[in-house]
């Protein structure tokens, strides 16, 4: 669970609040009053993305997340802290038969509204800026 490290980072190093990405709630699954997950629709937007393929699925997520955090925290063409948006999205990839997960994942960061028109370029060549169409995300 990355929530606590992200909260700590923004609280300790950058007092700005985290920006929630605007979305339309499509479905919410609850059990005994606790939200298990939400199905959300996000509008067309630009995301900073990195695809990782380490031996372990968890390693891919962690390394991708850390590379994105460096981009967010000044390793970009503006040299500035970009601000943290939540959630950070992880896309799980499957094999050709779609019968099993692969260790390959894409970790994506929604660029804040003020940066959507002209996002800073990543210094890390593994990070790419992509414009996603309207997207469905499952969040927990």
Automatic annotation (TrEMBL):
Record Gene3D superfamilies: Regulatory factor, effector binding domain
Top-level taxonomic group: Eukaryota
GO MF annotation terms: heme binding
InterPro entries xrefs: Reg_factor_effector_dom_sf, SOUL_heme-bd
SUPFAM superfamilies reported in the protein's UniProt record: Probable bacterial effector-binding domain
Membrane-crossing segments per the record: none
Family of the protein in this entry: Belongs to the HEBP family.
PANTHER family: HEME-BINDING PROTEIN-RELATED, SOUL PROTEIN
Descriptive protein name: HEBP1 protein
Gene designation: Hebp1_2
